[in-house]
Every structure is written in C-alpha cells, then in structure tokens.
Amino acid sequence: MDGFSKYLVRRVFQFFLVVFLGITLAFLITNLSPVDPVEQTVSLMTNFGATDPRAVELMREALRELYGLEGTVLEQYAAFWSRVLRGDFGPSLSSFPTPVMSLITAALPWTIGLLTLSLAFTWTLGNLLGALAGYFRSNLALKLAGAAVMALHPVPAYIIGLVLLLIFGFAWPVLPISGGAQMNLTPGFTWDYIRSILIHGTLPALSLVLVGIGSWFISMRSLVSNIVTDDHVVYAELGGVASRKIFSQYVARNALLPQLTGLALSLGNIFGGAVIIEFLFNYPGMGRLLIQGIYRGDYSLVLGVTTMSIIAVAVAVFIIDLVYPLIDPRVRLG
Amino acid sequence: MFKILRDLLRYNTEFLIGFVLTGAIFLFAAAHFFAPYPDNAIYMLPPDMPPSAEYWLGTTSRGQDVLWQMSAAIWNTMTFGLTVTVISRFLALAMGMTSGYLGGRTDQALMTINDTLIALPNIPILLLVYFVMRDQMSWPILALTAALLGWNYDARLIRSVALSLRTREFTRHAVFAGMSVPQILIRQHLPYVMPVIFFTAMNNLIWAIGLEVTLSVLGFSDINRPTVGGMIYWANQHQAIIAGIWWWIAFPIIAIVLLFLGLFLLAISVNEYIDPRSRLSRMGG
C-alpha cells in the first residue's frame, strides 16, 4: 500500500471512531442522568392545571415510545443507533408535529455558510498576518495589529458578540442584529435576498473572526519565527533568493502544515463558539435551534441537534484531512 | 522561586502588567468575604440606582449592589476555573506521560482516543449534560464535565515532552536501577514536565473561565450563585440595555476583559520564560 492509501485508511477509521464515540457519549449522557426526560416533559405539560391521571399515564407511554426509552439499556442503545442512521429523531415537541430532522436540515445550511465563510476568512487573515509578523519582526504596524488580536483572543465569544451588538445595535445602529435574512423577502437566488443574507451575517461573522483570529496569529507567528532561523532559510538568504520568494515558498508554506492540522483539531471548539454567537444574534442555525430546544425542554430536538453536530463536525474534520495531502507532498508520495 | 518572580517582574513588562492586573482582581474578589450584604440576597437595596457615592457601581434591578455582586461573582468564577484546571491537569498528565513513556502501540491507541475526543464539539456536549441534569445541575458537576472535556490538547503536548525524555540516558539508568514505571514517571520525568504543566494550566484556566462565563450567561448553570456570566444573564433577563441600566452590564464586561487580559499576559510571559527560543528571538537573535 502506498503512503496515500495508508493515510486515507487511517483517516477513515478515525472518522468512524469519532462518530461512534460521539453518539455513544450522547446516549450515555442522556441515559445515565438522574432526571427522567419523560417525567420532565410530563411535568412541563401538566404545569398549567390538573390533568386526568389516565391521560397522564397514556402520555407517559406515548413519550416513552417517542423517546425510544423502551426495553433494556442495550435495546435502547440499538434503537438509538437505528434512529441516528435513519435520521429520524421523532417530532419536535416545541414545534409539534414538525420532525426534528426537518428543523435540522433547515438550520444546517445557515450554520455551514456562516462558519465556512468566517472560518476561511479568519484562518487566511490570521495566518497571513501572523506569518508577516513572524518574518518582519521589527515592523511597527504588524506589532500593533498583533497586540490587538492577541488582546481579543482570550475573551469569550459571547462577550465579543455582545459588545459588537451593543455598538452596532444600539450606539450606532447600522447593521441588523437579529435573524438570517429580511423577513418579507422570498428566499431564492435574487440579488436582494443574497444581499440581505450577507448584511445579516456580517455581525455574527465579524464576531467569529474577532474570536478566532488571535490563536492563528499567535501560533503562526511563533512557527514562522522558528523556521526563519532554520538552515534552509539562512542558506537561501545567503544565496540571494528574493525575500518575497523566501517568505512564501521557504517559510510560510512550511508553517502552513501544522496550522492545517490545528484547524482540524480545533473545529469542535470553533463550532461551540458559533453556537453561542448564533443564539446571541438570533441567527437561524444549529446553535440557536439547540439553545431554544433547551429553553423549551424539547428532548428530541436537543438530542437530535447534538448528535447531528457531532457528525457534522466529524465530516468537516474529515474533509480537512482529505485536503491535507494536497499541500503536504510527504503524505502524497509516501 | 521568588528570585524568578522578582526577575520576571523587573525585566518583563507583560508579566508585570499581567501580574498587577490578576493580583488586583484577585484582591477585589477576595474582598467579598467582607461584603456588607449576603451574596445571594435580592431586593435589599433600592433597585436601578446609577453609580453614586453610596453605591459605587450602582445597583441592579434586583436590588443588589453591583460592586459587591461582582466581587463575589469573580471569586466564584475563578474557583470554578481553578477546579477545572486542577482536575484536567491530572488527566492530561496521566494520559500524556503514560502514552509518551510507553510508546509504540499503546501510544498509538491512546493518542487515537485522544484525537477522537478533541474532534468532539464541547459546547453541544456540555449543553446536553446541562439539559439532562437541569435543576440538579450544580457548579461542581459542571466543573467535572468541563474538566473531562478539557485535557486533550495538553495531553498531546505533555506526551511530546515525555516522548523525548524516554530516550534520554537517565531514563535508561533508572530502568537498570530497577525503578518501576510509576516511579520513573513521578520521580524522574515529572520535574521536566512541570513547566509545561504550569504553562498549559494558565491557558486551561482562561478556557475554563470562558466556558463558565458562556454557560452562565445563557443561564445554563446554577443561576442563583453569583458568577460574572450570571450577572449578565440577569441583566439580560431584566432587559438592562433597553432600560438604560448600562452599569449592570458594562462593569461585569469590563471585569471579565481585564481578568482575561491579565491571565493571558501572565500566560504568554510565563511561556516565554519557559521556552528560551522565544526569549532569544525577542532579543533580536
């Protein structure tokens, strides 16, 4: 087997392992918890006045079946898997009788769009600035830019989003702070609709960029400043290779490899930040769906969104792993 | 130890600023033990008072003093962060050192598990845990869950250090001298790993505090225990921004940003101290 196939087999194995462990974990969390979701939903529904005890008993049975909580733990586990594979998490209780899966398929494109665009921007800009700052260490403008992104880096996503919301929503209201697109527009490939999506996505995307850019900047700068002292770079400098070429071909390209691995490793965390930002800006993606599901006590929705997020993140990591050989010839050639 | 601290304070401006900021915030948080009002009493004071000589940072719509609330809140938030950090350090240490020292197939298997856990999105899992626990959720459970999710990166880092220690001369000596694996790990290798632990601890603390702020802002923790995120949660519940009670939301945000800035400056300057390469490049070498 050549190097590439070996690499591929390992990545495919890793992908299935992530999905398997993630779904098992989701099952264990919901099963080991001391709170019975059926009782919880029943008490939520009988909160407003007395209900006939027989009706409550029927409701219990219906919910038990709906949530797949019949039989032994192993049977429940098998049932859970079959629901995941069929993509059937039952109807959502908070927007009955819409199936959880159709809520998720409506929300998923928003999250993917927001995350892909903002992440591509963050990663490119952070790495570019970081590489430049590592290569031209005495440049004052780059030093200042570095100080700015590094100061923002440790602040949690919610706080950055909230400050942007206060600035652009209240102090200087120029950008929409809620929703994914204007309500009265019909979705479609019209310029108005696309423009509306872009304008509504600006603040959430800007928050995600500000949250994420610092870590790429910091690690790229330290990678580059280590590579700069490597023999091959010193040799190229002495040989009179143009500094532009040294920067892009000798330094930045080598430093990019660990940064791509870093992207795959931190995707789970980045998704977490997006959940919070989506909720804050009322963006119609997976994050808002998840948090609203929690507030409304919608068991099937929360479980469905969590499971699908685990799978979605695993797929995204797998795609990055597939891109990796394209820029690292060592994997390609074995 | 004190000499290192003195030198860092004298020659490293970032460390100095970070140290002063973190120290000041710590003292401010510790002051809540002398607070004139109980932490979680509400409607004790006239609500919605702007900052004044009597209430320095104003009062909330729930009739609490913002200053003393914040003091208790920062203390609780820091306690949470430290708990997560300590627990997750032990996990990262055990996993990283074992994996690095044993090497081979064990290392491969452990690191595969590690990488799998890294790829899981933390926030949805934490939210699921909160969702199934609900009213029984308390901060120690939340801290434990966060710690279980927060050690993977650092285990990898510790493993790489342990991997290089494994082939060193003194390790072979220890093996021939008949030391057992736990003995070698604790008595021979731990001292080399300690600096990495300190550095990762700072980063982990920042991460854990950020997590606590995020979850309690959304109301996904014990909302009656004052925390920095919890203050913003209650301010949002009372529509503080729209009602113009800016001090309820502005001061907690400023406190969080200062705390993060202080911890972050400490983290990067300690990293610089531990990694001599970055010290060299700082000197222009």
TrEMBL record, chain A:
Bilayer disposition of the protein: Multi-pass membrane protein
UniProt entry keywords in alphabetical sequence: Cell membrane, Membrane, Transmembrane, Transmembrane helix, Transport
Subcellular location field: Cell membrane
Entry-linked InterPro entries: MetI-like (IPR000515), MetI-like_sf (IPR035906)
Transmembrane spans: 12-30, 110-136, 157-177, 197-218, 260-281, 301-324
Main location: membrane
Entry-linked SUPFAM superfamilies: MetI-like (SSF161098)
Location of the ABC transmembrane type-1 domain: 108-324
Membership in a protein family: Belongs to the binding-protein-dependent transport system permease family.
PANTHER family given in the database record: INNER MEMBRANE ABC TRANSPORTER, OLIGOPEPTIDE ABC TRANSPORTER, PERMEASE PROTEIN
Name the record gives this protein: ABC transporter permease
Taxonomy of the source species: Bacteria, Pseudomonadati, Pseudomonadota, Alphaproteobacteria, Hyphomicrobiales
Automatic annotation (TrEMBL), chain B:
Membrane topology according to the record: Multi-pass membrane protein
Domain ABC transmembrane type-1: 74-267
Keyword RNA-binding belongs to the record: no
Keywords, in A-Z order: Membrane, Transmembrane, Transmembrane helix, Transport
Segments passing through the bilayer: 12-35, 73-95, 116-133, 192-220, 241-268
InterPro entries noted in UniProt: MetI-like (IPR000515), MetI-like_sf (IPR035906)
Subcellular compartments: Cell membrane
Pfam families according to UniProt: BPD_transp_1 (PF00528)
Classification via PROSITE patterns: ABC_TM1
Top-level taxon of the source organism: Bacteria
PANTHER family tied to this protein: OLIGO/DIPEPTIDE TRANSPORT, PERMEASE PROTEIN (DPPC-2) (PTHR42729), OLIGO_DIPEPTIDE TRANSPORT, PERMEASE PROTEIN (DPPC-2) (PTHR42729:SF1)
Homology family: Belongs to the binding-protein-dependent transport system permease family.
Protein name according to UniProt: Peptide ABC transporter
Organism of origin: Devosia nitrariae
